[in-house]
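@channel sequence for tomorrow's demo:
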Amino acid sequence: MVAKAEFDSYYGRPVIKPPSWEARDIAGYFFFGGLAGAGSVLAAAAQYTGRTRMETALKVSSLGAISVSVVALVHDLGRPARFVNMLRVFKPTSPMSMGSWLLSAYGPAAGAAAACAVTGRLPRAGAVATGAAALLGPMVASYTAVLAADTAVPAWHGAHRELPYLFTASATAAASGMALVVAPPHENAPARCAAAVAALADTVAMKAAERRLGPVAETCRQGKAGTLLRTAQALTLTGAAGAALLGRGRPAAIASGLALLAGSACTRFGIFQAGVASAEDPKYTVGPQRARLEERERRAR
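structure tokens (generated this afternoon):
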């Protein structure tokens, strides 16, 4: 007879190596990338509906956001050459490889769209660039969730189904907030609608992720991550409500937009901190293994 398997860590040490990423770099990379990608989609919608000031402002902000995102990524990598080296391989099964190529395609498209909008030159080329940036935007906003979930970190991998939806909703809230800040009130109706939908989707996705994580969801409710995620929910819901009810006034629109931006940033930093906490505590790695073993034994009986 074989003794019953027992999962435990070695002298209480972490089972996996906690992420060595800097929160400022990688969580910032997540946030600014999402802001850029979702902003390009809203910019294309603004161009299609004739909201010229919103269109131009969002194209410029998307270019700025993706630039900051890439700088944060390169800073974490240590040397710019490491980012270039990732382009030597095209591997569809690798989120890192596909993300590098995605950024390389999206960045020039966002730059061309912003340049044409600001200068007023080459409108046809600008329209093509705007369409390309809008097409790639949702992938830019969500692929970082796939990148995080592809690791062994319990709080990220355990929510691999919900994390892309959460990141996309958070990115949409950030882009809506940016639109409320930079656009005049008579042009911000689509942003106010998008903010309401994004806030609802953000809340639903977060609750679904916590349900799937089970005991690991404690990392999303406790410590630094818990504080950040509670703050994120409060800011996102407050910003969306303010945009819907008071967004026709310029001061209220700006305040609501800033709340949405801050809420989205807190979401990204909170998810990052939850992942670190789940990797550092062995019970969140050992516990799910024990639960899976017990479930298999229950089904066998």
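heads up for whoever presents: Residues 88 and 97 are 9 Å apart (CA to CA).
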